[in-house]
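Working notes for the structural subgroup meeting. M.R. asked for a predicted model of this chain before we commit to crystallization trials. I am recording the input and output together here so anyone reviewing the notebook later can reproduce the run.

Input as submitted:
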Amino acid sequence: MSAIWKIIVFSKSLWRYYAGISVLTIFLSIVNLSQPLLSGWAIDEIAKGTKAHISYVLWVALGIFVLDLLSTVFSNVSGYFGDQMSTKLYRLLGVKYYEHLLTLPQEYFDTELSGKIINVQNRSIVQITNFMNMLSNNFLQFIFSTIFALVIVAYYSWPVALMLFSLYPIYLFLTFKTSNIWQGFQHKKNHRSDIATGRFGESISQVKVVKSFIQEAREILFYKKQMNEIVSINKPQSKYWHKRDTQRRIILNIIFFAVYAFIFTQAVKGKFSPGEAVALILYAMQIRIPIFTISFLVDNTQRAIADSKDYFEIMSLEPRITDKEHATELNVKKGEINFNNVSFAYDKKDVLKNISFDITPDTKIALVGESGEGKTTLTNLLIRLYEPQSGTITIDGQNILNVTQKSLRENIGVVFQDPALFSGTIYENISYANEKATEKEVIAAAKAANAHEFIEKFDKQYQTQIGEKGLKLSGGQKQRIAIARALLKNAPILILDEATSSLDSRSEGLVQEALDRLMHGRTTVIIAHRLTTIAHVDKIITLKNGRVDEIGTPSELAKTNGIYAQLLAISSKQGEIAKNKLKAYEIAS
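Returned structure, recorded in token form:
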């Protein structure tokens, strides 16, 4: 029950709806339970034959009619509150989930499929919302109706009340006895569903790869295999549940037989009047209905417990990267960056070991090294997507661990190798850097990025929809939009995962020209993918075996036998061997 309590505590801000539904449920229970009593009075009056008063039974009929009207009103008002509550709960859980996800470190997203993260949201939040709606509209009514009915039945006959009461502990004991096994099956189904949905999301987002390698059948087979696993798990789960449910219901059938037999024999003996006998039978039937719906209630409760487990597991993850209690605002006047004995390990594997170097303001440095040597990790550490195990990183003498993440990232612009655009308009993607930017500022950024000319050729110009990840744009166009976004941010420090290596010569020239404008007057860290780019930087830092190998100007390092000199030598050669060696360093030939 701790999972149910978690859900209630998590949604405590909606207590007004829960309270309103509870009050209406109590009224509804009283109204519904009053009808058998009135029916009994009417039957007792009718049993008098010619001595019966027509006006009396008409007043009773009117009373039943009024109760019916009240039941209609109360149930619909309660249903309205339930609908509002479930919608607001859906929003509350969804927003909290999204907010929490965005506080988690980059490592979490490196190890989880995005499809699984989305599936947990859809499955868990929908199930929790449905459960709370069911709980507020059915469970409370079930509790109050049962209590009131048992009190009334006990007034007429305590043996009948005792037999009816015995239904609950017996049924609940047998039900909860099966709960752990059922949830075990459900956990396995959820696991398979997450795998299937995760792969589904990956293949859809990379559908061009799937089609170009003619792997449609393979992807469908993988998805079908996971779905088949869910079906195969569902069979024993359903069989187990219904087998146990049959056993529970047979026990209830026996108890109800005893109840009816007792009422009938006592009525024949004259212990109950006809009206009292009918009232007791009606109350027993009212208790019988919720008892048999316990299967539905318990089934939904177990689903909510099983499905909320993944949700609350994610919500319980502590953000490892947080602002210190008295974190200050980063104040960048020069843009000097210092790495001091920085070490970083990922999954207990050392990536960077005692890295130290300085970047003077308004200069361009290039990071060079084989794939996996930590070039991207260094830039991720600079914007605190990761944190080092030891050492310090300072900007203008300020330790980035002592400043707010917001102020740190406000002062660093990033252009990724993948432009990373969003669905929406061109204007929305450029202004993503600054939602308060004016139209004039957005256009100025686009012009500086050599993007304005091609944007104006679209029918809707800046309001053109670009599709998911900008699929309606060419590679060069996407990069220029990304550069315009970085220009609009106007941060004093720039991280540039150089992105011209896969472009045609004309696009490359336009993008490079835009990049030159972007880098002007900024401290720039470049993950270089072209030797021509490296040749024009102020300083090169080469990485080898997780350590700094060499630091120097292009002309200085060209004379050594280090990584940069070797790359220059390889680039002058032809053939596959030379190309493969350059690729190892993520350098375009």
